[in-house]
Design brief:
5 domains, D-amino Acid Aminotransferase, Chain A, domain 1, binds 2-(butylsulfanyl)adenosine, OB fold (Dihydrolipoamide Acetyltransferase, E2P), Helix Hairpins, alpha+beta
Length: 666
């Protein structure tokens, strides 16, 4: 390790302090003093010093927030005190009832009212002034150790300066701002991924990710509302605790107030109800807490929630307007979504003109007809939804809606998947889905055509060079070299990649076709059971469902795919181009494992998980990522995770590495 000059070490210390200071101004106080550019410059400087002198890295450095190495799974953390939930109410009467109940037990107290953000509860622990553990709520007693993920939240202090509070725990809510929620959903739409219904689900999804670098890109936010063991610090009430937490540098929502009685609480809540729409995050209610901790103690807790607190949930705001028409959108993965075209109406701070109607069943269930006066609500305060109909306002002229039997984008016959309630266009040539389908076709696990990202595909479609992925194989050097930002060399490379893709394995081709619900693993299973694409294309329903991994829905998706005339045409193009349609790999050599399912947890010394999995599969066994009824063996390596606990709970057979090696060497 290089010797660290004293000058450099004090420079790093100074940069860290500066970054902490500006971080707090920006993320906690919302009063930045420097530009983002200047902040990034300071950050880059510190990163560069820490890279040259790794000995200077400290766990509380701002550079540590960007996300470390991916984890295999989360460890479990037992909470210092259980993380409880709150009783909910929706009416003033309930609040007065709550007040009565409290007064029966104690007197001379005040209330603290806070805003309630719909996110996820987390616990953050500090040791010797340094942030050491961040945990999710889990079942309230034990949660996931999400330290690295929670560390990416920029407003969370990584260090506590107040000497009295060096060893402490606080709790609060991780959430996503309305803006960030929209950004994430836009990105997901582009990547053909299912959209999150509300910011809470999006935040939950982010916290569950195993790669902290991806979590960092989701830009989670945080509000802290609880100080654990306040008596240890001489703090006597919730209001004081919030003031103290703020002083320590925690992000505390400004909306909190100490009020003398329930009448004042109700007044405050009512005054807040309208204001919430203007906030940059979704607020779903308010939390009312008996302020004094000694009174809280007297009131105690029930099995699930404290008797000294209650959540008042705001009703989602509603508006009535006319449903002028129902249009049908074709998504990037082929789903047909009916959309309500509304007479513009003001709702919760914005003008609403369109709202999703989800699917045909929803329309039927709510009996929504074209021309109806409908009730619109904002789900999670963000996405407008039609929740019902004012049937009193009907004139008799309203018309029932029928889902089209042909795709509005390409005219192909659509399929209706009973179990999923969705109507889909499965035509691989459908222009609404083309970019996604072709990008998928060229993907690494599919045909592995390097250099064919979304931008290149988009240009090929725009220039009418291709109408489906079958056309890729007729592209010439003249076509490709004429594209923007494409030199002779990259054109040659791309054509070479396309040529090479003709030799891909059958399982890659099956995956590349983009059959709904046929992911990599299913494609592999199909290739193992059918040696050629033609045999798969002719497979019967009973035959497919006989395969252990193939359920009814997937079988139906496969049959539908090969039945569609447009898809047959594209497969013929692939065949004519000389794309391999046979299984090249040898079959399972020894079927000693006979379909038995293995689950791995923890690390082994001889093989990586991928290697061990391949061996199991080559011996006719199967690998699953989660334990369940059909698990035959749970292979337990070093530092196993929660799968081990679950296996023990379910009484499954667990084996260590040595035993596993014996099984595969039988
Ligand atoms: S106090 C023992 N305060 O709401 C009481 N919770 O429905 C623990 N929440 O699990 C909670 N804002 O995730 C409290 N200011 C606030 C809150 C809040 C949001 C969440 C929290 C809790 C859930 C209960």
């Amino acid at each position: 390790m290089p010797n660290i000059p004293g000058k450099i070490s004090s420079k790093a210390e100074k940069l860290r302090k500066e970054l902490d200071y500006h971080n707090r101004l920006y993320y906690v106080d919302a009063k930045p003093e420097i530009t983002d550019f200047e902040y990034d410059k300071l950050m880059k400087e510190l990163i560069s010093i820490e890279e040259t002198y790794p000995g200077l890295k400290t766990p509380d450095s701002s550079t540590q927030r960007v996300g470390g190495e991916p984890l295999k799974e989360f460890k479990t953390v037992t909470h210092s005190v259980p993380m409880m939930s709150l009783d909910n109410t929706y009416s003033h009467e309930d609040l007065l009832e709550f007040d009565k109940r409290v007064r029966k037990v104690t007197e001379k107290f005040t209330y603290t009212v806070e805003i309630k953000i719909d996110g996820l509860a987390v616990a953050v622990r500090y040791k010797n002034g340094i942030f050491v553990t961040g945990a999710t709520r889990g079942d309230g007693v034990k949660g996931d150790d999400a330290t690295e993920n929670i560390k990416t939240v920029k407003s969370l202090p990584l260090k506590i300066a107040d000497r009295k509070f060096l060893n402490m725990e606080a709790r609060g809510e991780v959430y996503l701002s309305k803006k960030q929620f929209e950004v994430i959903n836009e990105e997901r739409e582009k990547a053909d991924e299912a959209l999150f219904a509300n910011p809470r689900n999006a935040a939950a999804g982010a916290l569950k990710l195993l790669d902290p670098r991806v979590v960092a890109s989701r830009k989670l936010s945080l509000f802290i509302y609880t100080l654990i063991e306040p008596e240890k610090f001489g703090v006597a009430g919730q209001f004081e605790a919030l003031e103290k937490l703020k002083e320590l540098g925690f992000p505390v929502n400004e909306g909190f107030k100490k009020l003398p009685d329930m009448d004042a609480v109700i007044k405050y809540i009512d005054s807040f109800e309208e204001k919430r729409h203007g906030l940059p995050y979704a607020v779903d209610g308010m939390v009312i807490k008996v302020n004094e901790f000694d009174k809280q103690e007297i009131l105690g807790v029930t099995a699930k929630s404290p008797r000294w607190a209650i959540a008042y949930k705001f009703k989602a705001e509603q508006a009535k307007t006319r449903l002028n028409a129902i249009t049908v959108q074709v998504g990037r993965v082929g789903s047909l979504t009916p959309v309500a075209e509304l007479e513009p109406v003001r709702l919760a701070g914005t003008t609403v003109k369109r709202a999703t109607l989800h699917n045909e069943d929803e329309i039927e269930r709510k009996d929504i007809r074209i021309g109806d006066i409908v009730i619109v609500e904002k789900a999670g305060e963000i996405i407008p939804e039609v929740v019902g109909v004012d049937t009193q306002a009907r004139t008799g002229k309203e018309k029932k809606f029928k889902m089209p039997t042909e795709c509005p984008a390409c005219g192909a016959k659509v399929v209706r998947e009973e179990e999923e309630k969705a109507t889909r266009c499965i035509n691989v040539k459908c222009p609404a889905q083309l970019e996604g389908r072709i990008t998928h076709f060229g993907g690494r696990e599919a045909m592995n055509i390097d250099g064919m990202g979304p931008a290149v595909v988009e240009q090929m479609i725009r220039n009418k060079m291709i109408k489906d992925y079958g056309d890729l194989y007729s592209l010439t050097i003249f076509d490709v070299a004429n594209m923007d930002r494409m030199g002779q060399k990259s054109a040659d490379n791309l054509l070479g990649e396309i040529e090479n893709s003709k030799k891909r394995e059958l399982e890659n081709l099956i995956f590349a076709l983009g059959i709904r619900n046929v992911g990599q693993q299913t494609a592999e299973v199909l290739a193992e059971n059918y040696d050629t694409l033609d045999k798969l294309a002719e497979a019967k329903d009973e035959e497919l469902t006989r395969i252990h991994e193939i359920g009814k829905v997937v079988a139906e998706d496969i049959l539908d795919f090969f039945k569609a005339k447009e898809n047959k045409e594209v497969i013929e193009k692939l065949r004519k181009a000389g794309v391999n349609m046979k299984r090249l790999k040898k079959k399972v050599t020894k079927n000693i494992l006979n379909g038995r399912v293995f689950v791995f947890t923890g690390e082994m010394s001889k093989y990586s998980r991928g290697e061990a999995g391949s061996i199991v599969k080559s011996l006719g066994g199967r690998v699953s990522s989660s334990v369940g009824k059909d698990t035959a063996y749970v292979v337990v390596g070093n530092e196993p995770g929660s799968k081990y606990d679950k296996a023990v709970k379910l009484g499954l057979k667990t084996v260590n590495e040595q035993e596993f090696l014996k099984i595969i060497q039988q």
